[in-house]
Amino acid sequence: MLSGTMGPAARPTPQTLAYAGLSVATVGWAAGFVAGKVALAAMSPLVVAAWRYAVAAAILLPFALRQRPADGLGRAAGPLALMVVCGGVLYPWLFLLALSRTSATNTALLIALNPVLTLLFSPLVGERLDRRRLLGVLVALVGAATVITRGDPAHLATLSLGSGDLVALAAAATWATFNLTSRHVVGHLTPAFTNCVIYALGAVALYVLGSGDRPWAQLAAATPTAVAGVVVMAVLSSVIAGQFFLVGVRTVGVGRTVVFVYLVPVLTALLSTTLLGERFLPAPREVGHARSPLTCDRRALAAIA
Asked: Which residues lie below 8 Å from residue 250, measured CB to CB, with a gap of 6+?
């Protein structure tokens, strides 16, 4: 006989919520490519990055003020400062510098090492490194390389390392350092406060780096659509995705969180096809003059950095 009342519905676990949030974050990061392509039609990369961070910091400021630590930063001060340097300044700068000195294909392949580097060094922050995680990241890295080279492994033989490639590798290492450092911060500071500090200080640094491009003049001359692109990047890629990323690090660990980065290229392709009318192209038979699927969107890549 069935009971007339039903028990309370099972609540999702924190881990389930974290994974759901990271899935949303990947959509936000992917949307940043599309919005970045729109914004960069009217503004230079460093200027877009600076205004994106400034808008994100302004959105998070009320929440950060309410959630600021009553007893100060304490032990989180040092790691937070390193996150500001790595995630707010060095990574966007190195990424843009790499794109200016090497091909988008080389840059994408080297930046794709970020999850691998993060996982390899995750024991330094107290996380286990087992065979299953190594195998999963290896499969993801092979998949990323397949997409970036358009399914032709022979394209890897045509790549050569130069100064720009070393800069791209440094950018990947910087991003991995940011990920690992966040593990020491998320247990002491809220995501809103952490991200607000990173974005605010990063915006100032990026503004100074891009001062030669006259950020205010570019913003004043930009079309409403370009400005909307900056706002969309700030809201979806920085505020929402940034929050879910730190929640993921705190809940399921940095090793599992960072693997979600590999979903971004697939979602970006889907959004670009739907919203921008871009097409999927088959892999060419000859790679001598083939364009990487990322070379047509170099400036949009810079926007998400």
From this structure: 186, 187, 191
